Amino acid sequence: QPQGVEAFLGSSSFADPTQLHPLAGLNKETLDYISLEDTPLPDAAGASVLPSRGFTDDLCYGTGITYLTALTLGGVWGLNEGLKRSVGQPPKLRLNSVLNAVTRRGPYLGNSAGVVAICYNLINASIGYVRGKHDAANTILAGALSGMLFKSTRGLKPMMISGGIVATIAGAWAITRRTLFPSPQTNEVD
Asked: Is the pTM higher than 0.90?
């Protein structure tokens, strides 16, 4: 006589996984979860550093990498700020000050950069689709427009400053990408 959980689940239909989900009884030896070809991926989304299968890969990778990088930089900024504010305090108060500063600056910078990255990728893909090619001009224009959109509720001057900053970062990225990862072919949209 089983005792405990086995006694409870033994008489139930939950004990048979095929009753819970129709795919649970498939042969795991013959099931292909994802079939990817080994041929080089087309670079339709514009000279991506990582292999890309299109817009959604660039959107996910670009936004994720940007968010994590900014989150880390914001955490370092908060660590520095917390350590400076808590000089001469007892260890528990110093730790509290550092944690407060890190959790204030890290998510702020990460979330802000993530939003700008989503806008950038959407605008860059749209410009590339309309123009029929992906080049540095798209990158810089998308950077300027996404920076301007991000600060559009603050007024004209902050909007222009933000657009200039993001366009500069996008231009630096375009130059870095072209220098470190040269592409032999032009990136025409099909």
From this structure: no
